[in-house]
Design a protein that fits this description.
Helix content: 25-40%
Radius of gyration: 14 Å
Largest sheet: 4 strands, mixed
Strand order of the largest sheet: 2-1-3-4
Number of helices: 5
Distance between the termini: 15 Å
Shape: globular
Number of strands: 4
Structural class: alpha+beta
Length: about 120
């Protein structure tokens, strides 16, 4: 399994995806095809945390008046399944590994992954 969960309208996602040869990867546009409970469970297995998958920059936080500091793992899970913007992106998911988000360290780890798995 090799999947990338992303948003077509996200410039950062597009910029990161353009850096890699994604032949053989399933590209999932999460606005058109939201993540499933099974996929979220698979991500959680690898991160051991719903919070690690949660985007604290989502516009939905302010719109819904959420206090992020008071959210529990159960809350994070429900919100991730409820609205696509809560997923930190892009998410590269393989059978053994997961790369979540767009921070520099994650993108560097992705480059290492693609170099060793080319």
């Amino acid at each position: 399994m090799k999947k990338v969960f992303h948003l077509n309208t996200c410039d950062t996602c597009r910029k990161i995806l353009a850096q890699f040869d994604l032949t053989g990867w399933e590209l999932r546009e999460i606005k058109k095809e939201p993540i499933t409970e099974e996929e979220l469970a698979e991500m959680h297995k690898k991160t051991k945390s719903y919070e690690a998958l949660f985007s604290k920059k989502s516009t939905q936080i302010k719109l819904r008046g959420l206090d992020v500091k008071s959210l529990t793992e159960k809350d994070y899970k429900e919100l991730l399944l409820d609205h696509y913007t809560f997923l930190k992106r892009p998410v590269f998911l393989t059978d053994k590994e997961i790369f979540v988000g767009n921070d520099k360290k994650n993108v560097e780890a992705l480059h290492e992954f693609f170099e060793t798995h080319a």
